[in-house]
TrEMBL record:
This is DHA2 family efflux MFS transporter permease subunit. GO terms for cellular component: plasma membrane. It is a multi-pass membrane protein. GO terms for biological process: response to antibiotic. The lineage of its organism: Bacteria, Bacillati, Actinomycetota, Actinomycetes, Kitasatosporales. Keywords: Antibiotic resistance, Cell membrane, Membrane, Transmembrane, Transmembrane helix, Transport. The chain crosses the membrane at residues 21-44, 56-76, 88-107, 113-134, 146-164, 176-196, 208-227, 239-256, 277-298, 304-327, 339-357, 369-393, 405-425, 445-465. InterPro entries: EmrB-like, MFS, MFS_dom, MFS_trans_sf. The keyword Nucleus does not apply. Residues 22-469 form the Major facilitator superfamily (MFS) profile domain. GO terms for molecular function: transmembrane transporter activity. The keyword Metal-binding does not apply.
Length: 505
């Protein structure tokens, strides 16, 4: 009998062969989605040139994926709990790989955008599954170490993603940015089927909230369409109709979630003032991050003249700082409370974005680019780990997995809206990305907008987040191991760019 057959869910040890294979599989699967999120932005200028596309196509290349991922990620987690976490994880990996293959084969912009939306569905299936498999498979004494290893290797993947993406774009071509996922999936799937024990949530009941998921995704899609197409349409009705439809669909989503017996998004979770506040802060922070990383890679290539490889490498300081210091930042946040980090962090990020205004044609990296990225990275270090920990601490432990999934969806949706809205607010018309001077002018407008959104997030955090929210309750102090494990489990859908916060918790 093999280890995989003999191993019962919740009893696997990290020292066992099956434990090491489970960890390897979850790291490999999650790395697919992580790499995709960091390498595609680097490829955007080359995609636009190769397909003869305007700025709207580049926005949709990012947002089609984010739209289906944000809209369906909560449903993906529920499917795993009910149908089997390994099964849904494997389906997600295969789905993601097939969609990636189609992205790389896309003959035109329409096919690429459709394939990216298809890819987001796969991401919504595999993303909640990777840490859920760790939580359900490993022995309680090994879960924290397993998640720490998963988080550390995930951080390495985030660090090499822009470099790898730039190398592929400048080398074999942008299509390989997508095809890279195919061999990773071919390695991941048989290992998962061979070594990962199946597990389910025996308490899961009721029907799946497919209607709620569809309404949420359609609402986001309609609003995104209106924002992206606004600069291209001469008729107001062509923008107003989808915008109004998005608002009505959003209202219908709230109505359905309020009245369903088993909603995807139980609205009573927002009765926690802290949970609501921290999600508003998340919206501000990740909207700014989404706009920043979308436009900064384009600015470095279009206006400064960097190659794809140089642009991807240029942004590494933020990720390196996160890797080195996030765990320590989480510990500081636990000692002093999250209110100060959640105020100071966004303000530092805002300062970094204001410094990016100096990045223009003729910019020198060490003088104009690096200082801005270092300040930005330090702000992210101060901010991200305490933010995630506060999300988990703001609700009952039993609902922390749901809270983390909601917060992750909020972060994705914020980035989605930012990529759609920021070019419109900054005055970027559909062909501006082909002109260094015009793009630079818009970039100088966009960075202060992002900084302003971060300042708003800092003010909300200062006014609403309690300093004692991370302190354990008397019940949790009586059961420290249970509390730590539940916190670890809830990292399953934590926002991106937080590779060290699990160690901090």
């Amino acid at each position: 009998m093999t280890d995989s057959v003999a191993a019962a869910p919740g009893a696997v040890r990290l020292s066992q062969p099956v434990g090491r294979w489970v960890l390897f599989t979850t790291i490999l699967g999650s790395s697919m989605a992580l790499l995709d999120s960091t390498v595609v932005n680097v490829a955007l200028p080359r995609i636009g040139a190769d397909l003869g596309a305007d700025l709207a196509v580049l926005q949709w290349t990012v947002n089609a994926y984010m739209l289906t991922l944000a809209g369906l990620i909560l449903l993906g987690g529920a499917l795993g709990d009910r149908l089997g976490r390994r099964r849904v994880f494997v389906v997600g990996v295969v789905w993601f790989a097939v969609a990636s293959l189609l992205c790389g084969l896309a003959p035109n912009a329409g096919v690429l955008i459709a394939a990216r939306a298809f890819q987001g569905i796969g991401g919504a299936l595999l993303t909640p599954g990777s840490l859920a498999l760790i939580q359900s498979t490993f022995h309680p004494d090994d879960r924290a170490r397993a998640v720490g290893a998963w988080s550390g290797f995930g951080g390495v993947g985030a660090a090499i993603g822009p470099f790898l993406g730039g190398w592929l774009v400048d080398g074999p071509g942008w299509r390989w940015v997508f095809w890279l996922n195919v061999p990773l999936a071919a390695l991941c799937v048989p290992i998962a089927l061979r070594w990962v024990p199946e597990s389910r949530d025996p308490t899961a009941r009721g029907s799946f909230d497919v209607l709620g998921a569809a309404l949420g995704a359609l609402s986001l899609g309609a609003l995104t369409y209106a924002l992206i197409e606004a600069p291209n349409r001469s008729s107001t009705a062509q923008v107003a109709v989808p915008a109004v439809a998005g608002v009505l669909l959003g209202w219908a989503f709230v109505y359905v979630e309020r009245h369903r017996a088993n909603p995807m998004l139980p609205l009573d979770i927002f009765e926690s003032r802290q949970f609501t506040a921290i999600n508003v802060v998340t919206l501000c922070v990740y909207a700014a991050f989404g706009g920043f990383f979308f436009l900064s890679v384009l600015q470095l290539q279009i206006s400064v003249g960097y190659s794809a490889l140089a642009a991807g490498t240029a942004l590494l300081p933020t990720t390196v700082l996160m890797l080195l210091l996030s765990a320590r930042s989480g510990e500081v946040g636990r000692r002093i409370g999250p209110r100060i980090p959640l105020t100071v962090g966004p303000l530092l990020c805002a300062a970094g974005m204001l410094l990016m205004v100096r990045v223009e044609p003729g910019a020198v990296y060490w003088r104009d680019v690096l200082p801005a990225l270092v300040v930005m990275g330090l702000g992210m270090v101060v901010l991200v780990a305490p933010l995630t920990a506060t999300v988990l601490a703001s609700v009952d432990v039993g609902r922390a997995g749901l809270a983390s999934g909601i917060n992750n969806a909020a972060a994705r949706a914020a980035g989605l809206v930012a990529v759609a809205a920021l070019p419109l607010l900054a005055g970027l018309d559909p062909t501006a990305y082909r002109s260094p001077d015009r793009f630079t002018d818009a970039f100088r407008v966009a960075m202060p907008i992002c900084a302003g959104v971060l300042v708003l997030g800092a003010l909300i955090a200062w006014g609403t987040v309690r300093s004692d929210v991370l302190e354990p309750t008397p019940e949790e102090e009586g059961h420290p191991r249970c509390h730590a494990e539940c916190r670890t489990h809830c990292a399953v859908a934590a926002p991106p760019l937080d590779p060290g916060d699990e160690k901090a918790r």
